[in-house]
Amino acid sequence: MAHAVMTLFTKQAGDTLVFRAVTIAISALIVSPVVFLFPFPGWEVWRFLLLGAAIIWAFNMLLIAAFQRGAMNLVYPVMRGAAPAIAGLFAWIALGETLGWVEIAGLSLASAAIIAFSWPERGGAPKAAAIAFALSAAVMTAGYSVNDAAGARAADSPFLYAAWFFLLSAVTLTSTAIARRRAAFMVAARAELVRAAKSAPFNVATYGLALFAYTLAPVAPMAALRETSIVFGAILAAFVLKEPFGLRRTVLAVVLAAGLIMLQAG
Q: Could you give the CA distance from residue 109 to residue 103 in angstroms, rounded to a whole number?
């Protein structure tokens, strides 16, 4: 739910790049006290933090490009729906996590249902560029899910890892926004400040809760559960952005729930 609200704020932003930079900077301020409550991380944690900062930077660039080219109800399902299946593959390769056949079937069903949310309504047509950027963002999502799960486990605390993650992300994304907007950055930042301040707590919540879940259970099922955000996102897009939801997406939400039940049963 937190991820869907955060995404809605992002879609509504006037300057998405500056909005994301200001949001991450405020998020870093929110979690900064944690840095002083834990010992400084060792290299076994920093190697994941540095890789994670690079991946999340790429994810933000791809997310921005996708939202500039397509509606939330098109881009968001593809971006989030493909991620669990890719994360399952990455987790098997990198972390040695395996799933039973029931879990694999549930993961496949859930991922297919989420992606099907983006199928065009009658008379509509998906935008190839928007979908390509969304799929690329899904790969980055899978990458940082597995990388950050390993990092949080190495740190023995998801809170410590999350705090340093936001600090690093604030540096990279704010630097990018300043470099691209130059003199216009401060004007745009002031315009986005209120919305970013509202979005930041949801940003911290969605990442922190997911990271905590990854320390307790295998990545793929938790990633699939997190991607139920697409259902909440579609509802928000329908009511707030006036984008269509319809009977088909209602049925797909039920199919998605069935897939997630199979994951838990497995």
A: 10
What pTM did the predictor assign?
0.78
Q: Which helix (H) or strand (E) holds 124?
A: none
Per-residue b/e over 224-255, b at no fewer than 16 CB within 10 Å? bbbbbbbbbbbebbbeeeebebeeebeebbee
Helical (H) or strand (E) element with 133? helix 128-155
What are the tens digits of pLDDT across the range 206-261? 999 999 998 888 887 787 777 777 778 778 887 887 776 667 767 777 777 777 77
Contact 213, 222 (CB under 8 A): yes
pLDDT of residue 192: 96
Angle at 209 between CA 208 and CA 215, to 5 degrees: 90
d(CA 23, CA 213) in angstroms, rounded, equals 23
Is the CB of residue 259 less than 8 Å from the CB of residue 106?
yes
Task: Determine contact, residues 116/60, Cβ cutoff 8 Å.
Answer: no
Q: Are 265 and 221 in contact (CB under 8 A)?
A: no
Strand boundaries in 126-227, DSSP class E: none
How many whole angstroms separate alpha carbon 158 and alpha carbon 89?
A: 22
Taking only Cα atoms into account, the Rg of the chain, rounded to an integer number of angstroms, comes to 18
CA angle 176, 179, 181 (to 5 degrees): 100
pLDDT in tens, 109-130: 877 876 776 666 555 555 778 8
Position 18 scores a pLDDT of: 96
